[in-house]
Specification:
The chain is α/β, with parallel strands linked by helices. The chain has a single domain, classed as Rossmann fold. The protein is built from 9 helices and 11 strands. The longest helix is centred in the N-terminal third of the chain and has 19 residues. The protein starts with 10 loop residues before the first strand and ends with a helix.
Length: about 280
């Protein structure tokens, strides 16, 4: 399999077997991906409490506003699912539209939040260029089969000075280094794994200027953490934690873990003059 980023063929094996498949690193650009991939297994999605999603959304948008200063305008949320991030972004002052490939999730988002959702894949939906101030990819960008195409399309859809915000699992995190092939971000539907350097390279090639590119923490409910622990690491301990949470009525209590499992990248499109100079050169 060619590297999805640089199309090179040389690869070095990192993990012979994970839930995502065999994990390799491109010897040319360093991108990490699964080859061959594990068979896809349809599994139920275990949602976290709304308060946890809102806390994480607030943290991402706080970083975004502090980094690029875009406090209002038109925002496109790609892969909105049930609309939690999109709705929170609207509360922060943005005029929000969304894209979601799952028709049922898109319908639920519209019904729940009254947000206009385009149903389909980001790569295939036809939209006018230069119309968005912000495009968000929260826990989505790692699923694009052609990440270069997705980054370039986002660039074209943004107005000059517009920006994208991307949150993805951070393959460079210490937890992955310690846990190895049992890392909880290895899932049957996850095949591409980003690190700060490979994400920077991808976005700069598309024309963006990197404004922030670093690991961030995440907020969970006790119930979600117990389920994740049971699913990936120790079923007995996770089950015990869940039972204890229910007994003491604290399953919805939130807490933050800052182990760098997630990577937040904010990148900005140049202003009109810079774009014109690039074209002229």
């Amino acid at each position: 399999m060619k590297c999805p980023l640089c199309l090179g063929r040389g690869q070095a094996q990192l993990y012979p077997k994970t839930k995502s498949g065999r994990i390799v690193r491109c010897v040319h650009c360093g991108f990490v991906y699964a080859d061959p991939r594990a068979p896809y297994i349809d599994h139920s999605f275990y949602p976290d409490a709304d308060s946890a999603y809102k806390a994480n959304t607030a943290e991402i948008l706080k970083h975004f506003k502090n980094t690029v200063g875009i406090t209002k305008g038109k925002l496109l949320d790609v892969g909105c699912y049930d609309g939690t991030f999109a709705a929170a972004a609207r509360e922060f002052g943005y005029n929000v539209e969304a894209i979601e490939p799952n028709a049922k999730a898109a319908k639920d988002c519209t019904a729940r939040h009254k947000i206009h959702v385009y149903v389909g894949k980001f790569e295939e939906i036809v939209l006018d260029y230069y119309q968005y101030d912000v495009i968000s990819f929260v826990s989505v960008f790692q699923y694009f089969e052609k990440p270069k195409m997705a980054a370039q399309k986002a660039y074209n859809l943004l107005k000059p000075n517009g920006a994208i915000v991307i949150e993805v699992p951070n393959f460079a995190c210490t937890a992955r280094r310690l846990i190895g092939s049992r890392w909880h971000k290895f899932e049957p539907e996850d095949f591409y794994f980003y690190e700060p350097e490979t994400l920077r390279m991808l976005l700069q090639e598309a024309g963006f200027t990197i404004m922030m590119n670093q690991a961030i923490g995440r907020t969970f409910s006790l119930d979600y953490f117990a389920n994740d622990l049971s699913k990936h690491y120790n079923r007995a301990v996770g089950r015990l934690l869940s039972i204890g949470g229910k007994a003491f009525n604290i399953n919805d209590v939130l807490f933050s873990i800052k182990i760098g499992d997630n990577l937040l990248c904010i990148a900005q499109k140049p202003d009109s003059n810079t774009i014109a100079n690039r074209i002229g050169a």
